Amino acid sequence: xxxxxxxxxxxxxxxxKVNRHTExxxxxxxxxxxxxxxFVYVLGATEKDxxxxxxxxxGLAGEAELNKNDILNFxxxxxxxxxxxxxxxxxxxxxxxxxxxxxxxGRNTSIASVPWQVSLREKTYPICGGSxxxxxxxxxxxxxxxxxxxxDLSVRLGSSWKTFxxxxxxxxxxxxxxxYVSKTKVNDVGxxxxxxxxxxxxxxxxxxxxxxxxxxxxxxxxxxSGWGKLKASGASATFLQSSTxxxxxxxxxxxxxxDRKAIDPASMFxxxxxxxxxxxxxxxxxxxxxxxxxxxIGVVSWGLGCARGNFPGVYTRLAYPVIWDWVMGxxxxxxxxxxxxx
Length: 342
Ligand SMILES: *[C@@H]1O[C@H](CO)[C@@H](O)[C@H](O)[C@H]1NC(C)=O
Ligand SMILES: *[C@@H]1O[C@H](CO)[C@@H](O)[C@H](O)[C@H]1NC(C)=O
Description:
The chain is of the alpha+beta class. The chain has 6 helices and 14 strands.
């Protein structure tokens, strides 16, 4: 992650090339199969020496588990919001170079610092990132879900490693925003529903989504995370990376090297930097979180290359009512029979 590539989507490029479907609600096929939760033992010992230590969600984890049935209100309470913000500030501080006070590129980061981060897999292959938003729902990008059958998808969570550790959960069904357009990437948001509810822990926690229709201030730090490519045409990360980047005003983003017509100010926002080799999201980070002050503000969506000067990354704007209402409509659903109306 956090450096470079040369296609339009921060994911395996064949997925958006193959798919030209637009306006489709549920792309990944529903199939009946036996739900199964795998538990894989975490090999934590070697992790300790190379990751940030002082971020700690263990106090929140127990409470979140107790408040599982009312998790969205729990996450929205002032006290819990403050607790998330405090942990976020700690991670932010550790990502900024102490000597130069400058932003540094991606760093090895324990899942315990970003416990909402998941790795979405198709069969055994990691295809995208995602964020836990409730005990049953994972938020990701629409373009991550277009090709896959839900029976081929699974989610790895609670691990700092891309390909082992943590827990694996099967996918019941996935949903693509009905107004997602693959050609333009507008409304690039999708949801994955798990078969069985998650057990929250200091390494597996939901994050609160940004409030509806709030304006995102520009030139503010935010944190992106994922296991995407480490540089231009290089290999992807095996250990979770995170990095600070800055939100960019739409006016400035439109003046960047990106095609100004390609940026939809309603459903997208830009973040990154105009200088070369600064942190950026990259191929494989797609669908993953961008967090500001402990709140999920967006989803890694697309870009042009990674960390090339003058090409900021583009993110799905979760506060956009068309997106926000659709997401909330699904994740607050309690009765299966409501599904038809969504
Ligand atoms: C990050 O983690 C990888 C995988 O364990 C390791 O090879 C690398 O040395 C680590 N980098 C740093 C800067 O600690
Ligand atoms: C969160 O709480 C605020 C009041 O603090 C309220 O206005 C808002 O509707 C709540 N949001 C959700 C998603 O419950």
